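call fold(seq) -> tokens
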Amino acid sequence: MKRNLFLCAAAALSAIEASASGFSLFQGDTTGCADAAGSIAVGGRAGDAYYNPGVLSEATTGSVVQVGSFFTRPHLKIEGRNPYTGEKYRTAGKKKWFAIPHMYFAHALADDLYIGLGLFSRIGLGDEFPSGWFGRYNSTKVDFATYDISPMIAWRATDWLTVGAGLTLQYFDITLEQDIDAAGIAGLRRYNDPSPSPYDVHQRIHGTDDCAVGWDLGVKLDPIERLHLGLAYHSEVTAHAKGHVRYTAPAAIRAAYPGFFRDTKAHGKITEPSYWMAAAVYDFTDRLSLGINVTRSGWSSWDKLEIFEDQAFLPGHDVIGADKKWRDVWRFSVGGSYKISDEWTAMASFTWDDSPINRKHADYIVPADTREIYAAGLAWKRGRWTLDGMYFFEKINDMSVSARPAEGIFTGRYTGGFSHAFAFSASYEF
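ret:
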């Protein structure tokens, strides 16, 4: 099967789960996390092609393999208030580390022609809440990841212009879990009352797409001495997910309503955003380079989430979903690198990452807002080996949430959000 072939090819890519502004992942390469402008406009690693296939020409004069991973541990508290009793709640997702591995290969076919292959993830989201928490009628767990294979090619047209292109062949996997207030539906209590209930039904949705396809374009420009420019475009990717819905219901519910909450097949469509990336870097000295990066993410593609069941869990409820109505957003970063010695280079950056979430439709599946990211990294190169390491601290801004009890959302806010993250990679040229 396509899925099995893909997973064998991507065996190094284990579970990919992390949260980002929206659920885009910009952690495709270690140095790109610490100095995005340098990765887009200058290059130097095979993994920089994750951001801009046009810099593939800077990865090697022979062949190079790069392997690495990004590790993050996000933390966020969610506050809410019971609309019926006024009781206040506070909870947080389960604390755990998420890994985002990557692998790249680049090869120079000629002095002006280069090919590459990347295995990575451009989309990822993972969160899980304690059993019985107050927002359980909206979300109890989400695992959302893509596993991407990207063949690439770059051509150095002149000394100052290189163009690149690539395909994205993507395997898509999503799991969404939530509880259903069966007692509220039956009129035995107030619907979606967050107070404990022994009659909750657990719903688990799982879907996959064996091969969604996207494409990438990139340009690297060196118009004058010391100035480097990069521009890249990554297309939308539409995944047509197929899977199933499983229900776990208390015995009393099964006995009272034997025809309801039956497992069934399901299908849906999710369109991932496009990205425009632009960067400029200037070499102020032979050691010091500073740059700026601007990214536009097309999150208006995330208009709604709809999952169609072949068999409704209740009459008239064959569509599961909600409006999202996200918006396109900007991401800005400034940073640079300093060559300490022939072997050591230091990098640092600051990033402001806007949130695409429409607050009128905010939910607990993606509980996040605008982020501020402070990053620093070190690179060591000797002979054929290059080792990169990076750390960043991410601060997530607080965000208020308006009540929508019918969707299991209650008046409150997301607060105290932050994340510590590390990344490491090793490259070997041969």
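The first helix runs from residue 2 to 9.
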